[in-house]
Amino acid sequence: MRQIRHPGPVAATRTSAIADAPIHLRFTLQPGDRVDAGIAKGFAAAGCLGGVVAFDSGSCDPFQFVIPAVSRDGAHAAWYSDVFSPEGAVEMKQCVGIVGDRDGKPFLHCHGMWQTSDGLRMGHMLAPTCVVAQPIVVTGLGFAHATFSATYDAETHFTLFEPVAAGAQAPSPPTSSLLVRVRPNEDVCLALESLCTSHGIASANVFGIGSLNEVYFADGRQMHSHATELLIRQGRVTSVDGAPRARLEIAVVDMEGNISEGEIRRGDNPVCVTFELVIEPLALFP
């Protein structure tokens, strides 16, 4: 399987997971809200510290985003493009975000697809600069006793979300969801299956965003870009012959701005920089 070399020492632990009971969320961002601030407000109102959100309605004006790019300084394995600032209102088509904190303040890491005056585009939203123009309905899973916290990662030299316990700890029921991070060069499907096995999860929904080192689809298509940005359109874990089996359908953008969609091939899609996930169990192994 493909490997990408990062500048720092390889961390011994390749996946991280924290369990907490999920709180189902639904709220609306209003015109004039900044996307990040509006989502932070919705989480705070529900007593949640972090989690995952999705939205596919409304628009923003102004709006800014970046796409993956070759590293400019040699200190990272990949980097970001120059900022794109489309003219006029930008319609949200499908967006997934991980909610947590950075430097003690709420922070949103969001990938998505949006309709601009230049056509359909995809990338990494610069949420603090994006202002809601038409209402955006947000759904998601929030957590009161766990979150994602942005910390410096010595392996990649990026500041990345890491799942952490937070607040007053409450007992986690067996059906608690998992807040997850997968590190570079791990196949994302196999990592999910391993985590489900260790937590006794037979079937689950999977939500999240991340990056892959090239993308190999189940139908044979390939995206030859060592840096990508993607979101999970539909993620499922089911029990096959008594073991969890992951299937992920994604939307992904490469370093040229090309967008591809489809189910990825299990066992042949290594993480580039990071993958941030929420696993929502549907059934446990007996």
From TrEMBL:
<feature type="domain" description="PPC">
    <location>
        <begin position="171"/>
        <end position="286"/>
    </location>
</feature>
<dbReference type="InterPro" id="IPR005175">
    <property type="entry name" value="PPC_dom"/>
</dbReference>
<feature type="domain" description="PPC">
    <location>
        <begin position="19"/>
        <end position="164"/>
    </location>
</feature>
<keyword id="KW-0238">DNA-binding</keyword>
<protein>
    <submittedName>
        <fullName>DNA-binding protein</fullName>
    </submittedName>
</protein>
<dbReference type="GO" id="GO:0003677">
    <property type="term" value="F:DNA binding"/>
</dbReference>
<dbReference type="Pfam" id="PF03479">
    <property type="entry name" value="PCC"/>
</dbReference>
